[in-house]
Amino acid sequence: MPSRNSALPALLSLSLGYFSLGTISLAVVGLNGPIGDDLHVEPASVGILVTVFALTFAVFAPSAPILLRRWNRKRVLLVGIGLLTVGAALGAVAPNYGFLTATRVLAAMGAAVFGPGASAAGALIVPTERRQRALATVFGGMTAAAVLGVPLASFLGGSLGWRPALLGVAVLSAIAFVTVFVFVPEIPTGEPPTVQAYRGALRTPATVATVSTTLLFMAAQFTVYGIAGAYLKDRFDASSGLISVTLLAFGVIGVAGNASAPRIAERLGGERTVGLAVIGLAMGFALLLVAPHSTAGLVFFAFWAFFSQLYQAPQQARLVELVPLQPGLILALNAAALYLGMSLGSFIGSSLLPGVGAGPIPAAALGVLVLAALAHLLSVRQASAAKVAEQSATPVHIS
């Protein structure tokens, strides 16, 4: 197995693929106005394109490992990012809203194949002790998409039009395809995933609780972040320029959280690091509830970005440890939960905002986060009990 340094080109290629995935999935947020004007649809309808992508991903991610189980991991990665690229390219020439929606489904199917596969590949091409750092490197592309990809797509959409912006993202995804082809090594397929394998994984102690934690953690986060623009304008009277700066700061701080995750996890362990992320997110939401109705309050919004991205790599590493024979399968389930959580949180936030205003929204997020904390505590207890039972069942040899 290569060291992390020798595996670095492969890890960076996977990270670039994740960057493309994140940008394609969220680019329509920044292109809402231009797409709506060109295709003559309401902004709310354009916003649904994010939900279409997320739900397609959530449905297809768990089934993709079974459908593609006879292919080696590298071929699966190439097929995934290939579909992602084609979906983005076709979206750039979409003649109407229905066609654009279909291209989002195609791109999401590619993302559902590539995303979990990239995380599994990143975990498998480095020694076990370097897994946290490898996963942080790979998933860092998704974090960077929020910082650079989405604002860049928004800028290109405003200056050149939404079609050249989507085409530019498709070109970026094509570059990622080439780098994955060149730098990612052939990776053994491992035990072929089956329906029985899914059942076995779900019966593994702590698996369901851990995946549920991801769903609830993301739902809590996107209850606020999913309506970030409207929330910041209503809560802090922020201008469009100030909203852009705040979201950029949020993304930069999120990158710092993702980059810090391996060191913190090595010191505290994965379970405590996930717990720290939950506590930090709760503190951020609590601060938003008492923040002054001024631009100074925007600092509190950016604060919790660190903890939102501190969560991902340690949780993925925990799942790989729980189901070591089926890393792609369990990470696919986790990715599906992640996107379901994004959809659920965005739905909660957008449903509450018209009726109650921005002020109480973080309280709703806190309520969901309490459920995430309970799920995490349950996963820790179940994993600990399973280890004790395994140690008790191991025969002791007396020489």
From TrEMBL:
* Its membrane topology: Multi-pass membrane protein
- The reply on keyword Transmembrane is yes
Question: Which keywords are on file for this protein?
Answer: Cell membrane, Membrane, Transmembrane, Transmembrane helix
Q: Where in the cell is it found?
A: Cell membrane
Q: Does the keyword field hold Lipid metabolism?
A: no
Give the transmembrane region(s): 43-64, 76-99, 105-127, 134-153, 165-185, 206-228, 240-261, 273-290, 296-313, 325-348, 360-378
Q: What is its main location?
A: membrane
Q: Which residues form the Major facilitator superfamily (MFS) profile domain?
A: 10-384
Entry's CDD domains? MFS_NepI_like
Q: Give the PANTHER family listed for this entry.
A: PURINE EFFLUX PUMP PBUE
Q: What is this protein called?
A: MFS transporter
Q: Which organism is it from?
A: Streptomyces prunicolor
